[in-house]
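ARCHIVE RECORD
Type: protein–small molecule complex
Small molecule: 4'-deoxy-4'-aminopyridoxal-5'-phosphate
Source of inputs: curated submission
Record status: active
Notes field left blank by submitter.
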Amino acid sequence: MVTPAPAEVFTQLKQHFSARASVTYRLMGRNAVEAAASGCRVELSDGRTPLDFGAYAVGLLGHRPPEVVEAVREQLDRMTISTRILANPTTARAAAALAGHFADAYPARPALPRVYFGLNGSDAVEVATKLARLVTGRPRILAVTGAYHGKSLGALALTHHPGFRAGLEDSLPATTHLSPDDPDAVDRECRRGDVAALVFEPVQGEYGVRPLPTEVLAAWCRSAREHGAVVIADEIQTGLRRCGEPSLALAQGLPVDALLLGKPLGGGVMPLSAMLCTEALYQPLEDNPSMHTATFSGHPLSCATVPAALATVERHAERGRAVEAAVRDGLTGLAERHAALVHEVRGQGLLWALELRDEALLGQAVQALAKRGLLVSPCVSSPTTLRLLPPIVATDAEVAEALEILDAVLGALAPKP
Ligand code: PMP
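STRUCTURE (tokenized, with ligand):
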């Protein structure tokens, strides 16, 4: 396919999507559009090849990782959709690979053998919270202040940011947001007898890469379990070694009934999310498999990625630790050098945040970074956080280049004496 003239793309976006989005894309790309991508780089229509350390956490393996592309290509040549009245081996193999992956990584943890596949993270949130309500017979969900779990109505109820909920509050199912400063909150809420589940992100990615205190999570999970509520770990952003571990919640020994994955699960090639859960939580679907279905759930092209994506992530685990160390050192140095702009550095693994001192700086920084050749993702619920999501496959030279660009941009934004 020949990339169309950028002007045509911007006109189409303006006419058929959003005029505001079109203007933002034009500014970010300086009139260029995406043309191709490979590894850590995107190729633009004007020939520039910026580094992609963003992609909203999908590009853990970079763009078009060869093993994953090959798996999809093979499936593409064989069968792309499922009849849905016959068994599909690619979907079954993906579920077995995923459940086996976590059973092998955490043999001492509660078994999560049952799987539901969605296409977006919010699909996984929807099914988990629906099952929790069905097995407990209770309506209310406990989430955390600052939480981000998606924007479909069920998931939006758990997402805390008022800007996303505006005009919809009355349409959202019952949810209470708890402060992570309150270790007794789950016990107190559960005593009212109507709590179906506790849902949390071990690190709140969209809220500015903020880890929840392990001891508070442990107390909350213990209370939820004591009161018969379901514990759901949303690792759509943090899982699959984005934060070093296959699952932070399982690594922390939390008694999880459901683990949610998404973003890089399709290898950065296909859309895919999953809920892994216990036998008990899955029971309504065991009793009636049609109680929660979607036409493309278990889509063979998406599911074809899973064994290759998991194997490729594991093969790069050591590399990920090296990238983490280089990014940690680099960002710490940057924060010291640019203390007038940077308030704090937070992060672990391949999920990092520079907390800027004011909101106006963020837009300027993201745009200036793109101009100099580094794409990053802002955080959708934290307007002062510059988020850096280095791929696990990044080379030393690519990490060094990203840090140099950041240094130059922060230097240029610094108030002049
Ligand atoms: N949960 C978490 C932790 C997320 O970070 C996101 C997306 N940023 C979602 C759920 C929703 O995923 P999606 O946008 O794919 O629906």
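CURATOR ANNOTATION: The CA atoms of residues 246 and 293 lie 27 Å apart.
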